[in-house]
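Hi both,

Apologies for the delay on this - the queue was longer than expected. I finally got the zinc ion-bound model through. Below you'll find the protein sequence and the ligand SMILES exactly as submitted, and right after that the structure tokens for the full complex including the ligand.
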Amino acid sequence: MNNQRGFANIIILIFVVIVLAGIGSYFALNHQVPPPPPITTPTPKTLPPVPTATPPEASMATPTTKPITSKNLNSNFFRNDTTAQNILLGNSFSLKNAINQDGTISTNSFATKFLNGLRQVGYTGISSLLPVTESSPLAWLHKFQRINNLPKSDNIGSAELLKLDNLVSVRESMDTQLATSLPLSNIVSGFSTEPLTTHVAMLLTITLQSLPSSLAKWNSNNISDYIKTQGPGGDAGGIQYTARGICFLNYFPSLDSQCNSTNTTIVPGLMKDDPSLVYNILHEYAHYLDSKVYTSAGSESSKGVIDTQGFTAISFDTSANCNPSSPWRFFKLKNQGNERSEFVTDYAIGWTVTGDESCKSSVEDFAESFAMYVMQGNTFRKLAETKPVITQKYTWLKNNAFAGKEYFNGNANNIPAVNQALTAPYMPLLPTFIDYLTINKDFVWDYLTGQ
Ligand SMILES: [Zn+2]
């Protein structure tokens, strides 16, 4: 014991000598170096918290009350949005206050995000044949509340958000699945408040795949050729090839003409709803299939595969082109004044550039009837019951374009409401394509059933 203590004392003594020698030699070697300036950083009055041995995550295993966090949101679309998280904490969002004086909303506003959530789950504008009673963002919100048995309010609260988030999350997984088969990869995305590119890829996929396979050859050349030739056309206005990629200009209003996403203001009423985009794709694709407009591009392409001569001759006198300088085949109507009994939509009658109201661009009749055939088969057949010329057109499409395939979508019960709205003197001769659906102000489009 004593020996051990003595040994320890010797060790300590040696250690002290070494340390003193080290300090001495340090000052001996550095005596000419000025001492370092005093440290001016103030000493914190409170010490930083010392991390505990248990990480915070582990301590959440048995919470007393479940915290409301982004974990309550299921969709990728809403999950990381700070306003959405705030709404779940009880701070509802005033949609009314987010609408600018001129009726626009800002791209980066949660209002835009919420409306885009509604758009992705099939909410549409209300028919232009119906009187306008409120601004379109509020009309969309109130429609959502009405359909989901929520009290009418101009605010988006947690009940609205959780319901919509749930619907969006279900669609997101279906979108991803359906979008994978589209042989195009370079679709440009919009602003973070706008739907993901998988959503428009899905819409393009389901639209073209609903056609007989001979009409939609499933390869990137055919589909990109369609976008290049007819994508920018007409009201579709915009599925365009740009330096940045494929740009759905009308569907993503944040995109400028160079396809750059900008924080801007948008007119909610002009946002294209999903069935309108699908209708536009079908209409423009019908032009692409028309052999009187485009010549065939080979066996792997569907371009120009339908000879529409017989169809056009149903309502038009095709013996003389009354505007031969245009590629859009201008002919005189056979029965001017009989348009309501012969055409499915107002646009199907065609447009004129010659000043002669009887000389019409005949190609729109085929494109509109084609879209109606695919998207509103029930409505087309119901119209045909009382209109022999429309029967002729339906039968022609069934036999010459669709090889017998028929579609059972659209709501023929909406026809009386459309006819009633059209009796007002300021109305067009016939409805637009979308009126046949949206005349029912509770209409929500389901892309899986096409209803
Ligand atoms: Zn057209």
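Main takeaway for now: The chain has a mean pLDDT of 85.

I'll put the files on the shared drive as well.

H.
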